[in-house]
Amino acid sequence: MSVNSQFDFTKDYVLEDDRVLLRPIRSLDSAFLETYVVNEPEIWQFSLVAIQQPADLQTYIESAIQSRVDKTAYPFIVFDKLSQTYVGSTRFYDMQLNFATTQLGYTWYSKKVWGTGLNTHCKYLLLQFAFEKMQLQRVELRADNDNKRSIAAMQKIGCTVEGILRSHLPRPNGTRRDSIVLSITKEDWEQKVKLLLQSQLGSMPIN
What we know:
Blueprint: E1 15-16, E2 20-24, H1 30-39, H2 54-69, E3 74-80, E4 85-96, E5 101-109, H3 118-133, E6 138-144, H4 148-156, E7 160-170, E8 176-185, H5 186-201
Helix pairs in contact: 1-2, 3-5
């Protein structure tokens, strides 16, 4: 069966466990997330898109939705079941299904859930979906090489560092960033990453 037959961009996929729920982001979701633009500007420090006011967030969301229409990305909003609030967003992007690969990123969360394990729950669900439902062979992740928190989080879930793309992309402030490239392959998932995440979650496989 081809990879393309495993995934339908028009379908609303919902990924959830006992801690989080990820569903496709919608235009009206800006109402749930704009508080983080106003009250937590530091979470956008390493964003490649300047998010300084609610209108910027709305543009960001509309762009994400359009990328789904264009079949290049699939963006989610993240709901924290513990606090019963929406706390961030993430997405599959640069989806090359004919080659069984995708990137996973554009991930950000409210500071209130940093260090709470929420990211591990999200990554488990997303990677399980990518490798077991979509039947992908590779998931790539990138970050600003100065974003040590993000890099540490990716290494914690078992990503392999592949290298640095120097002077890779422009930042909103006019400087250029070096991008670190990490990945997880299907073999990594089956042989170590899935078990590592299950151990970190302290639970049995999530069905």
